Amino acid sequence: MAKILILDIETAPNVAYVWGFFKEFIQPKQVLEDCTILSWSAKWLGEKKFFYEDTSKQTEAEALAKLVPLLDKANMVVGHNVSGFDMPKIRGRCLVNGINLPSPYKEIDTYKAARRAFGFDKNSLEYLANILGVEAKGDHKKFPGFELWLECLRDNKEAWAEMKKYNMLDVSVTEQVYLNIRPYIDNHPNVGVYNEPEEISCPKCGADSSFQERRGFSYTNTGKYQQYACKSCGGWHRTRNTEYPKDIRKHLTVNSVG
Question: Of 75, 87, 179, 198, which is the most exposed, with the fewest CB atoms less than 10 Å away?
Fold first, then answer.
């Protein structure tokens, strides 16, 4: 079975000398501290156990070293803006801390998937959770807004406890949002190749042939393919081999280019 990891990180802000509040250009010499990873949380898709590490009692390098083995086992990593933020930040901080990269994996970015598939006015995790009716992301009420990050940097134990809940909740909500939008992710990595199926299975969720309903045909410029609807996740897929025999295929033509 494909190993799919749901992941979210929280980072510390850059610290720098500045003269103004708007349109400030920060030069490298003005930076006192670079952005680092404060905490990370993860879970395997469909499992109850959460993983969590932060830098309240260990270094960033030690926290990252505990994340890499999970990434090494993962075939796919799901996160909200995981391709635009989380994974580039993790790779950068691993480089700085001298930590080797894990084995390759596929990234499934729910933020990019939502932007690609839907016409929502906003694609934040909180907005998607609300509009899809899944468990609300919630806020850190005792330490609202930036105060939570500030208090964690001040080593406030209560703030760190709230950060843990906040980080883990992000992972839980991301998983629910992912499952809701998964049927619409047309470039979703093929789960079936990891399952080594002996019969038709869904490439998005891996459900076996008992969940696959024949629903007409899919046509390309050069072929006709059996189409299926997955009754497990709601996704659509088709066979790889055309229904047309060789004597029909040889009469097919395509538009000439140039």
Answer: 198
pTM exceeds cut of 0.85: yes
Q: Which fold has domain 4-184?
A: Nucleotidyltransferase; domain 5 (3.30.420)
Percentage with pLDDT > 70 across the chain: 98
- Name the one residue in this structure whose structure tokens are 């190749």: 193
Cβ atoms of 10 and 167 closer than 8 Å: yes
pLDDT at residue 137 tops 60: no
| Contact call for residues 80 and 8 (beta carbons, < 8 A) | yes
**Helix boundaries (H) for the chain:** 60-73, 87-96, 110-117, 125-132, 147-153, 157-181, 192-195, 246-249
The contacts of residue 213 (CB under 8 Å, 6+ apart) are 228, 229, 230, 231
pLDDT of residue 52: 98
* Domain locations along the chain: 4-184, 212-258
140 pLDDT tier (thresholds 50, 70, 90): low
